[in-house]
Every structure is written in C-alpha cells, then in structure tokens.
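pls design
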C-alpha cells in the first residue's frame, strides 16, 4: 500500500512488504524498513538473513515479487533499472574494494566524477577548477590527501576501502549503501572507518550492513536486525542486543 504524504515527509527510503523468492526460496518475506533523510542506520543479522538481497532490491539488481520500494517519497524503484537508480543518487559500495590500482589516488576520484572520464581521457586536459575543488573536498573527507599522488594499488586494504567510499562521494549520492566496510580491517582502521562514515552522514543518508558489533557500536545509530527476510528487531544497539530472539539467532552464536 502506498503511504500517505505525511508518512513520507522526511523519509528518503521506504520499503514495505517486500517479497523476493529465488526458485521458491523466500529470501525476503515482507521486509519493511524506512530511512529518514539525513539518517544513517546499520543493518545486522545472520548469514542468509536477506541483507544483500535487500541492497539488491534497492539498487535495482533484483526485482521484488511484491511490495513497495520508494525513494524520496514518490519514486518507485521497482520500475527502474540499475543505471536509472544510480543516476537518482543511490551509490553502493560492495564488500571488496574495486579501485583502479594502476591509477593514482586522486585520479581514481577524478575518474569517478561525473564527466571525469572524458576529462581524464583528454591528453591536453587541465583539470577544471570545479573538478579540482571536488577532488580536494573528497580527499579531505576520506583523509587521503597525504597519499593523493600514490598509486591506489600501493594502499593498505583500509585505505582502498576509504578511497572507494570517496569515489562514491565524488558522484554526490543522496543515499550510500555500504556493505561490510570493516571486513578485513585492522582495529585501528575499523575505528577510523566509523569516524569517516559519521562524518559522511552529516550530509548524506547511509545504510551500513555490518557483522562487526564493535564497529556498529562506534557508529552509534539505529540498528535493525534482519532474520529470514524480515525485521526481527530495531532500535539502539543496546535495545536490539537485549532482544532474546536476536541473541538466539545471531548475537549468541
Ligand atoms: N540469486 C540467488 N539464487 C538463489 N538463492 C539466493 C540468491 N541470492 C540469495 N539467495 C539466498 O537468499 C538468502 C538470503 O541471502 P542474502 O545474501 O541476501 O543474505 P545476507 O543476509 O546478505 O547474508 P550474508 O551475511 O551471508 O551476506 C540466502 O539463503 C541465499 O542463499
């Protein structure tokens, strides 16, 4: 059921009763979730809970069998393809970093800018002031300014993850979907990633899927636990951690 305007005021992302089946297996079973404009939330849950499938539905990779998926109140994402959805300003970061290893850090950001590829391809290009300013802004946000001329391939795993987040930021997304950013990171990198995402969340909406509870605690945002394709519990991390079912199916394992 499409909600009324009052419900959707300040709601950037609205999922209601979303169903996805793969050959009869119900990966999402009536998933309902909202994200406010300017909000960051964390999604947790056991393997197979449907977290990736949820991201796939939002980004148009998987089309739901049933349910509403609305962006900015009225845009029906179930009718759009992946390219249209990316164009709307929904950026996704997959778990594994996919930076251009043989390019410098700053050129990775340039390549990600709207129109950046044309600028990059032109032998006689001089970076426009706007492109330069955007690259500087992104490098400052992800705190990689000091390595801007290094090849991306020479960065640590954590730095590559931050660079890829920067490449998403270069496209001015309204919503960032970030899949397990802390996986494979050192404790120090994990802590820095939480600081980075909190900085980004000041002017973006962010959904973070994560298994690392220390990291989720650092994020200090609303947490939703999925289980068997639906929401099991939602609230602060303390509230969700105190839920017996969450302990039973996930945290206590
Ligand atoms: N393309 C597909 N075909 C068949 N089954 C699928 C497909 N994609 C996902 N599934 C199944 O749907 C269920 C939900 O998977 P999903 O990847 O969304 O879970 P998840 O919460 O992201 O798990 P993880 O934490 O392991 O990444 C799983 O049982 C998975 O095997």
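designed seq:
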């Amino acid at each position: 059921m499409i909600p009324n305007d009052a419900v959707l005021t300040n709601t950037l992302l609205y999922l209601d009763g979303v169903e996805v089946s793969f050959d009869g297996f119900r990966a999402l079973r009536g998933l309902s979730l909202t994200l406010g404009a300017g909000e960051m939330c964390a999604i947790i849950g056991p393997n197979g809970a449907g977290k990736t499938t949820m991201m796939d539905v939002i980004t148009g990779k998987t089309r739901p069998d049933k349910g509403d998926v609305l962006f900015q109140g009225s845009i029906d994402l179930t009718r759009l393809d992946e390219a249209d959805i990316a164009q709307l300003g929904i950026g996704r970061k997959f778990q594994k970093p996919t930076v251009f290893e043989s390019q410098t850090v700053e050129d990775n950001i340039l390549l990600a800018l709207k129109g950046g590829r044309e600028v990059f391809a032109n032998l006689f290009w001089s970076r426009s002031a706007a492109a330069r300013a955007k690259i500087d802004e992104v490098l400052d946000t992800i705190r990689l300014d000091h390595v801007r001329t290094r090849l991306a391939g020479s960065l640590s795993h954590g730095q590559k993850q931050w660079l890829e987040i920067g490449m998403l930021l270069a496209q001015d997304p309204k919503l960032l979907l970030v899949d397990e950013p802390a996986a494979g990171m050192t404790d120090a990198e994990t802590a820095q990633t939480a600081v980075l995402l909190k900085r980004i969340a000041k002017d973006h909406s962010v959904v973070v899927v994560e298994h690392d509870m220390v990291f989720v605690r650092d994020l200090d945002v609303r947490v939703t636990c999925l289980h068997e394709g639906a929401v099991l519990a939602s609230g602060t991390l303390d509230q969700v951690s105190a839920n017996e079912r969450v302990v039973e199916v996930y945290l206590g394992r």
